[in-house]
Amino acid sequence: MNVEKSTVLTAVMVVSLLAASSVLGASAAANGGAYKVPLNAYGQPDLEGTWTNATLTVLERPKEYGNRKIMTDEEVKKVEGEDAKLMADGNKPTDPKVKTTDLPHECGRGFSGAGCGYNSAWIDPGSTVMRVNGEPRSSFITDPPDGHFPPTKPGVVVPNMYVRAHYGENPENQTLGERCLTSFGYSAGPVMLPLLYNNNYEIAQSKDTVAIVVEMVHDVRIIHIGAKHRTDDARPWMGDSIGWYEGATLVVETTNFPEATSLHGAWKELKVTERFTRVGPHRVLYQFTVLDPTVWDRPWSGEYEFSASKGRIFEYACHEGNYALEGILSGARADEAAAAEKARAAAANKTASATPAPSVTKKQ
C-alpha cells in the first residue's frame, strides 16, 4: 500500500471513530449523564470486563411495594439489615450432629429444610438492593407497572421442573443444572438473573462476535453481530442470539429456545431482546423485553445494572457425572422402596382386617 492510500484510509478511520464517539457521547448525555463511553479497537462501545449482578432485589416485586419501583431509604435499610442478620446467623458454627430433618422450616431467601444446609461462606447472593441510576429498585420487572408477570393465556400451565413425570428415574430426566450441563435457574439467560452464588460474568468482544462467560456451570453465550437467525430449526440450550450496535448500546435478540431451558413456561415462540449500555466506568445498564404471545397476554420488561467485579472468573468445576447426581437418583430409589413397603404394609393390614375371626364352638 502506498503512502497516499495509507494516509487516506487513516483519515477515514479517524473520522469514523470520531463520528462514533460523538454518537456514543450524545447517547450517554441523553441518559442523563456526562459519561463518555469508551470504544474498542473496532469502534464499538467497549463492554469488556468482569461484571456481577449479585443483589437482594428480585425479579418480581413483593406485594408490599405495590406499583412503586423505587424503594424508600427506610425500606432499603430494613431489607439490607435483615439480610446482614441472615448472613451473620449463617456464619455461626454448625453442630456436626445436626440432621437435615433438624434444619429450620424457613431460613430466608425462599429456602427451607434441606435448602438451609448452606453456611454463609458457601453463598454470595449480594448484600445490597439493586440501584439503577442511583435509584434503589423493588424489582427487576418494571412493566407491567406492578412488577409482576402479565397474565398467562387460558390453559397455559407453567411447569415445575422438579415435579414432572419420570423425574428421578434416570440422569436424562434430571434438569440440565443437576447434570452440570447448563447453569441453574436463569443465570446464563436470557434473561440473565442472579442466583444464590456464582453471579459473575465476563464479556469479550471481537469485530463480529460477543462472548459472555457465565460463572455458574461454565456457560458461554455466543452473540453473532450482524447475523440473521438460523433457519435449520436447531434450538441451542441458550437460544440463538444475534446482535447489533445502536450508538452506545449492544442490542441482542434471542429466539429458538429449547424446552429444556424454557423461561417460566415459554420457549417455542419466545423472543427476548436485551440491551447492554455502559453508563459508567464500573456500571452496565441491562434492559430486557420478553415476548411470547402463546404464553402471556402481553410482553413484559425490566432492567438492572451490572457492577464491576474484582478479579477474573475461575472455573466452576461442575461436570456431567457430578457425584450429587448419584445421590439424587439413590434418594429416589430409597423413596420408591419406602413407598412400596408402606403399600405392602397397608395391603397386609387391610387383608387382616377383612379376614373373619375363626368361630369358637363351646363344648357340650
Summarize the structure.
Helix content is 21%, strand content 20%. It contains three helices and twelve strands, in the order H-E-H-E-E-E-E-E-E-E-E-E-E-E-H.
What does this structure look like?
This protein has 364 residues and is of the alpha+beta class. The protein folds into two domains: 16-71 and 134-341, no CATH class; 74-128, no CATH class. Helices cover 21% and strands 20% of the residues. It has helices spanning 3-30, 73-90, 323-354; strands spanning 49-52, 131-132, 135-136, 141-143, 200-205, 209-214, 219-225, 240-246, 249-255, 271-280, 283-291, 300-308. It has a nine-stranded mixed beta barrel. Strands 2-3 form a two-stranded antiparallel ribbon. The model is unreliable at 1-31 (pLDDT under 50).
